[in-house]
Amino acid sequence: MTVKRVTARLATAATAVVVGGGLGAFALTPAGAGAAVRTAPVATTVVTRAAASSCATGKYQKQVETYLKKLGGYGTITVDGKQSKADCAAIVKFQKRFGIQPAAGLAGPTTFDVAKRLASTKTSACKANKKGITFCIDLTHQTTWVMKDAKVYVKPTVTRTGMKGYRTPAGTFKINKRTKKEWSDPYHVWLPYWQRFIGGRGFHQTTTYIHDKWRGSHGCVNLLPQDAKQYYGIGKIGSVVKVFGRRPGT
């Protein structure tokens, strides 16, 4: 089949293409210790406009409704397992906030997983310092948030930490280097909003689709673009980072 014919068929079907990918998520490391992994580009997903606007009832409809109602802030939600315009709008808003593709309102496995992790996160588990800023990383739920004077300053968001064999270490650390763009020599990629806190490990904006959980860094803490930028604006040299729990499968 020629390229022209394929293009014509796509145009006729009125499709929207959502692409997740990139060079991969990498962690900068000295002398190769804790170096990050190159992640393969995410496969292109083709979604028809009709499907994207249908707001069908997903497999995890009731569970997602329950979690979003608990989290709050996404609009009016009725926990009955049946999709409605209000439910769909709330789910779409949630999906857009946490970079879930496609953000079409369907309560699928990724939306269910993210909602469950966020709703299950207990911010008190961080044991934040009573004074000042504390960055919290819950490895078990793969979430992160910020405390100020032991109170929630930035609500929990999603993260992706080190994979099997290269897990992000638990402990209390301090940010010791910050650059808006850090260059990774081993993998030839820029790491936006870099904040290092131990060895070659630190916060940075993910360079791939963050919800590919089986992929990941060799210890870095991947963040969505808006979260990485916000964390960089809050952090400074000496800011406390508390890491606890253990990522499932590591």
From TrEMBL:
CDD domains the record matches: YkuD_like
Signal peptide range in chain numbering: 1-27
Alphabetic keyword roster: Cell shape, Cell wall biogenesis/degradation, Peptidoglycan synthesis, Signal, Transferase
A Pfam family reported for this protein in Swiss-Prot or TrEMBL: YkuD
All copies of domain L,D-TPase catalytic, residue ranges: 133-244
Residues annotated as the enzyme's active site: 204 (proton donor/acceptor), 220 (nucleophile)
Biological processes annotated in GO: cell wall organization; peptidoglycan-protein cross-linking; regulation of cell shape
InterPro entries per the UniProt record, alphabetical: LD-transpeptidase, LD_TPept_cat_dom, Peptidoglycan-bd-like, PGBD-like_sf, PGBDSf, Transpep_catalytic_dom
Transmembrane intervals: none
Statement: the UniProt record of this protein carries the keyword Transcription regulation: no
Pathway(s) this gene product operates in, as recorded in its UniProt entry: Cell wall biogenesis; peptidoglycan biosynthesis
A cellular component term, taken from the record's GO annotations: extracellular region
Highest taxon, organism lineage: Bacteria
Gene Ontology molecular functions: peptidoglycan L,D-transpeptidase activity; transferase activity
Keyword Kinase appears in the UniProt entry: no
PANTHER family: EXPORTED PROTEIN (PTHR30582:SF33), L,D-TRANSPEPTIDASE (PTHR30582)
Descriptive protein name: Murein L,D-transpeptidase
Organism of provenance: Actinoplanes siamensis
